[in-house]
Amino acid sequence: LGTDLTTLGLNLNSNENLYHSFLSPFSDSPCRLQDIDFPVPTEYIIN
Amino acid sequence: PLGKTVLTKEQNQHLAILEGAYKKLPHPSDTERSRNYLPRIAVNTPAHYPQVPPVGHDSLDFLCKLNCDTLFFMFYYMEGTKAQFLAAQALKKLSWRFHTRYMMWFQRYEEPKVITDEYEMGTYVYFDYSKWAQNRKDGFTFEYKYLE
Amino acid sequence: FEDPEGLKEKSEQLLHEWIQHHSSLPLKENTKAFQQFVLQMNSQGLFKTDDMITRFFRICTENCVETCYILITKNQRQACYQRLDAFVKLIILLVKHSGDQTNHVNKINLFNKVLGLIAGCLLYDQESKLGQFEPMPFHRLFFMLLFEANLPENNLEPIIYHVLQAFVNVYHIIRPTKAPGFAYSWLELVSHRVFLSKMLQVSQPTPDQSFKSWNMYATILTQLIKFLSPFLRNIELTQSVMLLYKGTLRLFLVLLHDFPEFLCNSHYQLCDAIPSNCIQLRNLVLSAFPRSMKLPDPLTPNLKVDMIADIDANPPKIAYPYTYNIPSKLKNDLDSYIKTRAPISFLSDLRSYLQTSPEIGSRYNIQLMNALVMYVGTYGIQALRSKSLTPTHTNLTHAVHSTYIDIFQTLVADLDSEGRYLFINAIANQLRYPNSHTHYFGCVLLNLFSEANTEAIQEQITRVLLERLIVNRPHPWGLLVTFIELIKNPQFKFWNHQFVHCAPEIEKMFLSLGKNCV
């Protein structure tokens, strides 16, 4: 059951928390910027 | 060292049902707010295309190197996300200012002719999202109450 | 059952109207439209009784799900989202406006009710539709309810802790052993960044609630491990199990990186559930250490563990009430033996408590074994501390501690190899970051090695440590330090043992390990 845990697509040396951009337990790539909902100023909600 | 255990009937059932679920895995978009203007659509691009964003793509320095149109695209098409927020920060760093009434980004074309506590007036470049183009505007009054 | 005549049609008509006309409105208009809509619902008698509103939600949930089944076959996933998100919007507005602003009970009850209804529909659907079951509609409903509940505009912040509790309850109801058809969605939901941050960030209104949400999350993880356990135990890794296991590893890696204190707090409960051959996942949990702590390099020459600052000062927090795993009769006998060394038969009876089945490979109650070791060890540490003694090889046999070490030595001598393997594992599960348990149980293990009356025991202790060392990283600090002490300290005469030289590749491995370590 051993796995090289550095191959699961998580940047384990990151100084930032990983969970902010943790896309899915089934994905080996993190969220893209446009995937992360963010509390932007209401003026930015243009559409 | 403990060896195998015989799976119970229920565990074998679980395994069979899991096999079925394995064919209907969740899509990343199932757990994301609907993106009306840029929905996530999985497309199998050729393997030699970059499959993940470049390293450092989520840093302000990286965004400041992008050309303005890219930042405007991120700002207007990725609403309510970290991309929009960072794009706005990068634009400000590149001395653009967001006008909250026209909802457009303005940049001084030259030193304004008039500057008071309430407004400044002069020639500006602005990005018109409806025409998706940058235009120049002479004699424009930028009221500070609309400065974000 | 027995929905009142016409209720289904009325409810579906109202839902359809809401989805068509109101849901996509911006917030301001949406609220006005909502007020109009509520008047309509009221005029249809939907608020007359608790039963009616419950039926309304159930009918709407079923309607949304049925429609999604059709849209999914047409590959119109986005259209599903619109429908489901609109229904969620209606739910959230009804929750937000139920009861008055100060009394939150109505809101919380309504939220629990809706989640329970969706869970009920999910379980019913999974059972009735079998292979045709579609997880996505339920997945989307649960996610969007959590997402909307966290939106500042819905100002549910005052009840967010109760909202999280509601989700923990519903995730328990639809845990993978109950809804294996929903297992992937379930793992995705419980590991979602919004849920993680709410459950694990120390941001609850009170510290006590933070710990409670930590313990709730540990219970969720335990449910996941319990589902995987039989398949991992047999290393029956179909692709479907492997995907779920890899997803579990990813989640635990994020927890190790971002919330190590949470893993430190929950290691006992998780190790109780992790199958003993799932060594890497267990090492991952045991490798966590508080971010405020600086770990001395285990390879530091002449590292004296007992010289490490406050290693004995603070017993690590064990959140899980493990003593409840010890039957009260055994606990009473244990307490009386520890106090009075009587009844003398207690030691020889111990194995009978632990052995619960004749089935090879499942003979022992692992949770009881773990609890017994933790119970005896915890009091053994207190006994040493009462005489201001630190755990050293000699102090373990000191009069004040002799009953405790007797119990451990009896177990290691009496148990068969299966039982001894589980017993040694229970001790090795405490070898973590520098703390009084790591120090004490490390000494106990080395003491059992040096006092062993057969080489088989020494070999088995070595095996248990070794199998934890030869898997991929990470490796717990306490494991490394204990193993290095074993192979370095001449008192244990490690290299003299026949099993170290039992085969050339084994000897080579020990030598390379020894070279790395020494």
Q: Can you put this structure into words, describing what you see?
A:
The complex is a heterotrimer of chains A (47), B (148) and C (518). The mean pLDDT of chain A is 92. With 47 residues, chain A is low in regular secondary structure. Helix content of chain A is 0%, strand content 0%. With 148 residues, chain B is α+β, with helices and mostly antiparallel strands. In chain B, 28% of the residues lie in helices and 21% in strands. Chain B has helices at residues 9-22, 60-64, 68-77, 82-93; strands spanning 97-99, 104-108, 114-115, 119-128, 133-143. Chain B is elongated and about 85 Å long. Chain C has 23 helices and no strands. Chain C has 518 residues and is mainly α. The interface between A and C is medium-sized, with 23 and 34 residues.
Give the SSE map.
The complex is a heterotrimer of chains A (47), B (148) and C (518).
Chain A: no helix or strand
Chain B: H1 9-22, H2 60-64, H3 68-77, H4 82-93, E1 97-99, E2 104-108, E3 114-115, E4 119-128, E5 133-143
Chain C: H1 7-22, H2 27-43, H3 50-73, H4 77-96, H5 105-129, H6 136-149, H7 160-173, H8 183-190, H9 193-200, H10 207-233, H11 239-258, H12 260-273, H13 279-286, H14 328-340, H15 345-354, H16 366-386, H17 393-396, H18 402-414, H19 417-428, H20 436-451, H21 455-469, H22 477-488, H23 504-517
Helix pairs in contact in C: 1-3, 1-4, 3-4, 3-5, 4-5, 4-6, 5-7, 7-10, 10-11, 10-12, 11-12, 15-18, 16-18, 16-19, 18-19, 19-21, 20-22
